[in-house]
Amino acid sequence: MFFVQTKMNFLWYFKRDGEMVFWTLAMPVFFLILFSFAFAQGPSATVAGFLVPGIIGAQVLSSGFWGVGVMLATFREKHLLRRIYLTPIPPWVFFSSLVAYRMTLLAAQAIILIGVGALVFHVKITGNPLEIVAVLLIGTATFVSLGTIIGALARTTESANNVASVLTVPLAFLSDAYVPIDRFPHAVSSTLHLLPSTQFIDMFRSVSVYGNPLSHYLPWVGILLAWTVLGTLISARTFRWV
Amino acid sequence: MTAAIVVDKLIKRYGNLEAVAGISFSVPKGSIFGLLGRNGAGKTTTLECCIGLKEPTSGSVRVLGLDPSRRGELARLRRLVGVQLQTVSLPEKASISEMLELNAAYYSIPTRVLEMVNRVGLEGKLDRQVAQMSGGEQQRLALALALQPDPDVLFLDEPSAGMDAFGRRILWSEIERLRDAGKTVVLTTHYIEEAARLCDCICVIQRGKIVAQDTPPNLVARYGGEARVCITAEGFSPDEELQRLGTWVNTNGEWQLVTRGEPGLALASVVTRANALGAKISSLDLHRPELEDAFIAITGETIGDAA
């Protein structure tokens, strides 16, 4: 059931949707090249080393908010959710197959970005691969569970879209993803470090590119897991199939 | 006969609006039950309470002895009940065979793709995607999905809406086939011909209430009014002998006989007498009351935008 649903998610919402393929696979690379040249006037391992994990992190955010949250609101509006609700598929199987599908896309995006970063900009990923994957999984869990709240509460696709844009776009700029926030006044940047998105992206960058051990970040891991639990609880309480 | 479905004093309110205002009925196993009424009469809400999509404000619903408003019982019901919703909601990029494959996975049953597409007249279109299908084809795919797990009870909400004559024939024969296999079918419709042809019992719903409930022949006999013989003929007027057959009315040159007896016999007498009078018949009709007449008599309304 899980595998068939995941396969269909991939076929229906990705493979047969040319726009989706472009946005998912080409846009992050486009961002990497654009921002690298904007910030460094040429290939720079330092700048690209900042951007590669930042863009991957921003993709994790948008996966949760758009890929899961808005998608669920769309499914509800198109009456797809009620059809699924009437069949014996357990909700968690349906939901986890949607997450599995998004994680597959995220993995593809991460591999492409890391590949382009390594080949074009000589960015070295020095961290422990297992810890890198662990951070990505924790981040995905956090933002999928927070994104699901959008899908649970938004009445229409349009309002879900609005909420997701209001969250994703500013967060990408305020969370150390595209621009380093340490250029902001200290008070601002330390406030921004309270955001789960900033904590996740900084932790991911530090573990992957700077090769720091994950054990340095245990408090942040704890905070992100707390957000995950909170998001899951709120989503589960408020989710509507109809 | 045991009841497959028992609905008792069902009430569903949305704020101040009472969509279902105290409906009770029971559906015997192995029968076809129709909820007939205009749009907004409360048919869909009643059906949605039966399948667990809506929770009753008060009253109770039992399907195969299970309460669809309780989570655990609904989980068991899902395996026993098939549903075709009013809006066909299928993912646009999904193909027919993929929908059947996924649906089979949901129920952990064999896919039987070829058998299913044959039953609903979609053979040879396995790779066709939902977005490329006509409304009627999408309806038939939705029907195939509802039939695929071989449910004991099938709920159909306006199943023939948007279907062409071909689709309707398939739909009706599948419904009858299920009944013949001892399954129970509940359908909502505002298509009177469909209700008359299929249903063993019809519930006429108006403004959230049941206003009549019986077999189609009984509804017609009770509410449909008398049969009429209509004749337009030069030199014809009902004489004493013809007056005895019933009440005659003349509208725009057409004589109408509202008859108490068997209308066929009355028709024969009218023709014989007209010939004897040397009248030249230009038109002659026999109107037996139909379900539609009964519906109008019961509700005081026409069914409106019939499909």
Structure description:
Chain A is an all-alpha fold and 242 residues long. Chain A is built from ten helices and no strands. By secondary structure, chain B is α/β, with parallel strands linked by helices. Among the domains of chain B are: 3-80 and 151-221, 3-Layer(aba) Sandwich (Rossmann fold); 226-288, Alpha-Beta Plaits (2-Layer Sandwich), CATH 3.30.70. Chain B has helices at 43-50, 71-78, 96-107, 113-119, 135-147, 165-180, 192-198, 216-223, 240-243, 263-276, 291-299, and strands at 3-14, 17-28, 32-36, 58-63, 81-84, 153-157, 184-189, 201-206, 209-214, 227-234, 246-251, 254-259, 280-287. In chain B, strands 5-6-7-3-8-9 form a six-stranded mixed β-sheet, with helices on both faces. In chain B, a hairpin with a 2-residue loop joins strand 11 and strand 12 (254-259). In chain B, helix 8 packs across helix 11 (291-299). Chain A binds chain B through residues 1, 4-5, 8, 11-13, 16-17, 78-80, 82-89, 241-242, and chain B through 51-54, 75, 78-79, 81, 83, 85, 87, 89-94, 98, 101-103, 105-108, 129.
In short:
The complex is a heterodimer of chains A (242) and B (307). Chain A has helices at residues 2-15, 18-40, 45-77, 80-85, 91-121, 129-153, 157-174, 186-192, 196-208, 218-238. By secondary structure, chain A is mostly helical.
What is the ordering of alpha helices and beta strands of chain A?
A: HHHHHHHHHH
Mean pLDDT of chain B: 93
Our count of helices of chain A gives 10
User: Under CATH, the topology of the domain at 3-80 and 151-221 in chain B is which?
Assistant: Rossmann fold
Mean pLDDT of chain A: 93
| Radius of gyration based on Cα positions of chain A | 18 Å
